[in-house]
Amino acid sequence: MKQKPDLSFWKLWNLSFGFFGVQIAYSLQSANISRIFATLGADPHSLSFFWVLPPLMGMLVQPIVGSLSDNTWTRFGRRIPYLFIGAAMAVLVMLLLPNAGSLGLTVGAALWFGAAALMFLDTSINMAMQPFKMLVGDMVNEKQKTKAYSIQSFLCNAGGLVGFAFPFLFTAIGIANTAEAGVVPDSVIYSFYIGAAILILCVLYTTLKVKEWNPQEYSTYNAPAEEKEESANWITLLKKAPATFWQVGMVQFFCWAAFLYMWNYTTGAISDTVWGTTDVTSAGYQDAGNWTGIVFGVQTLGAVLWAMVLPQFKNVKLAYSFSLLLGGIGFAVVPFIHDQYILFVPFLLIGCAWAAMLAMPFALVTNALQGYGHMGAYLGLFNCTICLPQIAAALLGGVVLSLVGSHQYSMMFVAGALLLIGSLCVFAIKNK
Q1: Across the chain, which distance is largest between two alpha carbons, in Å?
Q2: pLDDT for res 59
Q3: How far apart are CA 132 and CA 139, in angstroms?
Q4: Cα three-residue angle 141-142-148, rounded to 5 degrees
Q5: Cβ neighbours, 10 Å, residue 269
Q6: CATH assignment of 1-230, given 3.30.565.10, 1.20.950.20, 1.20.1250.20, 3.30.70.260?
Q7: pLDDT tens sequence across 209-256
C-alpha cells in the first residue's frame, strides 16, 4: 500500500470549499427555524416539536450516505454524487421553506408545509455535509490531515458567520423585517434565496475541481475497499465499537440537548428579556430574530478563538470538561442580561463549549477507531450521538418549558444545567 501523496494548499482547499455554502444553509436553518414557525403561528410549547425533524433526518441520512458511499464507484466519483444531489435538493427547499406563510394556506396547513420543507432541507444538508469529511479521509495522508481539517473548520466557521448575519444585514440595507401576521419577513426570505445561490455555486466549484480516485487508485493508497466493507452491517459494527465510542456518546447526549434548546428558544428568550415583548407579530420580536443570528455568529467567533486555546491544554479531558463548564455558565447568564450588546459575553462563553464539541469527540472517537475499518459507516453511526439527544430534547421541550414556568428564557437555565452534567461525564471517558 503506497503512501498518499502530499496535496497543495489549493487542492486541500478545493476538497472542502463547498462546505462554505453548505454551512451557510445550515446556519440559516439553525438561527431562523424557530422564528419562521413562531411567525407562522406555532405555540411556544409546541415549537420544539418542529426541531425533531432535523436530527431525525440526520440520524437516518448520514449512516446511509456513509455506508452507500463507501461502496459507490461512478465516473463522477465516490462521494461527490451524494454531495451534489444533496446540495441540489437543499437549494430547491431553501426557495420554498420561507414562503410557507405566503401561499394562502391556513395556519395549520402552513405549519405542515413548513415542517415537510424542513424535513427535506435537513435531509439534503446532511447528504451534502457528510461527503466532505469522507473526501479528506479518502484522499489526504496522515501528515496533512490536521491541515485539511483546519481548512475545513475555517470554511465551516466562515460560512456560519455569513449565514447567521444575513437577515440582520438585509434589514440594515432596507429590506422589510416585518410582515403581516403569519407571513415570514422579506429579510428572512431573501437570506434563504441568497444562501441557496451561494450553496450551489460553492458545491459546483468543488465538484468541478476535485477528481476522486477510481477503485484501482483508491486501493493503491488504502486497504482494498472490498476487504473493508465485507459484512458491514450496523448492528455488528455497534457491537464491536470501542468503549470510547459510547462514553463520548454519553457526553454528547447532554451537550446536544443543551444546544437544541439554544437554537429553539434563543429568539423568544432575548425578545422577552431585551426587547420586552413575546408578540411574534411585533417589530421587536423580528429584531430579536435578527439579533439571534448575530449572537450565534459571536458564538462561532468565540469557538474559533477558543479552538486556538484548546491545544495548549495538556490534558484532553480537562480541556473538554472546562470548555463545557464555561458554556454552561454562559447559558445561565443569558436570562439576566437586558442589553443586546452585553449578550456577546455569554455567547462567547457558549462558543468555548461549541469549539470543544466540534473538536474533542471527533478526535477521541477517530483515535479509538484506528484499525476498526468502516470509517464512513462508523462516523455516520456516531452522528446518532448528536441526533438522538436532540430528538429527545425536542420531544420533551414543551413539557420542560411548562415545568420551568413557560418563559422561554428559563430554557437557558436548563441548557446550562445540561452542559454542567456533560462536563462531569467527560471524566468517565477512558481514552488511550
Answers
A1: 64
A2: 75
A3: 11
A4: 75
A5: 23
A6: 1.20.1250.20
A7: 888 877 777 777 766 544 444 445 767 777 877 788 889 999 999 999
